[in-house]
Amino acid sequence: MKDMFLLRFGDLVLKGKNKPTFINQVRRILKEKLKGLNVEYEFQHDRIIIHTEKDERDKVIKSLNYVSGLHSYSMIYRTTNQIDEIAKLAKEVILSESKKPGSMKIETKRADKRFPMTSLEISQAVSKIILPELQGFTVDVKNPEYKLEIEVRHDGAYIFMSKVPLLGGFPIGLNGKGLVMLSGGIDSPVAAYLMMKQGVEVELFHFESTPLTPLESVQKVIDISKKLAHFMPKNTIKLHLVPFIHIHETILSKVSDPYIITIMRRMMYRLAERYALSHNILALVNGESVGQVASQTLDSIRVVENVTNIPILRPVITDDKNRIIDISKKIDTFDISIRPFSDCCAVYVPKNPITHPKLEKCLEEEQKFDFEPLLKEALEGIETLYIKPDTELIIADFGFEVKDAIENYKNSQK
Ligand code: ATP
Ligand code: MG
Predict the structure, then answer these.
(1) 185 C-alpha to center of ligand 2: Å?
(2) Which of its termini does the chain have fewer beta carbons within 10 Å around, N or C?
């Protein structure tokens, strides 16, 4: 017998008029994520049932966790609407899905109102038949260890025991696009994931300062992008590598020590905004979390954001680090993020970074050098990579220059 999964929609059942668009998009993305697996689909109006091979169960479950807009799944079993058939299957399901005997509750929902018994009567009838045959099981309607659910619908009776949460949110591709400022740290990959979960497609924007920073810091970002690509349509995510070295070196040599990070971040925001606006991207996204480091006080955020005029979304702004870490483990970026290679914000950290920077002082510092040509050069030097979960790009194999590595990689893709 094949496995059967019942997939439920989350938020999107709430959206009256847009509902068909959302459901179609979930179906499309689901098919894409399960491509290559042996799956048959039954698209019901308010949910999806898939039939899969037992030996592919783990792969199916893993792929379901990349489909935003799906709220939960259950392994489900189906039979006819005959009480004795329902009872027979209910007993089998309890025995196969419970680890040891315990207290249980049977709960019935009756979508088929023509059915001659009420929900309660169905539960009681099933319980009466199976309980004597289930050694060690008792009934407890308040605090049961196991809950067996029966749904009587027009096309038969469905039985399942556990509901496993999936991503929830909205199907990706319907809520516009954001440009994520991606460092190699823990927070920004989580920010990217949270946007995608909410249905927003993302492109990734990374400021790289090799050879001032090690090549491995770029490798981290590539490896993180591979993990994030799973959530995107076509399993492909765009990673833009922005050459930041000249801006970085200029700031280090010209700007007063406490303002180095603030000015660096103002340059990053300027670049990200310009790129976004010229590529139809509606918002910037970053991994700032208030208070985490000197650059993330409200004063800092204000003087940095001051250089832009585009919405800036900060999905993890109020999250404590443990929650962010939990999510980064779930999406499998944590182990990459903690590799010990710093990117541009972390090399040559000033001795006394200012926690309450002043706007006038920022403007004064920025008078010390002509940054427009530097910004232009950085934007013109952007290298864009299309990253998939199985992209093989080991940057250190190609020598020291990121440019060489990218060149080689692009040639190997032709
Ligand atoms: P993260 O864990 O995401 O690196 P963080 O706690 O280390 O964050 P910062 O280094 O202050 O914090 O960076 C704050 C945010 O600025 C990051 O979450 C990211 O969105 C953006 N950012 C920092 N460095 C870079 C970079 N080199 N390229 C792109 N974005 C960056
Ligand atoms: Mg960082």
Answers:
(1) 5
(2) C
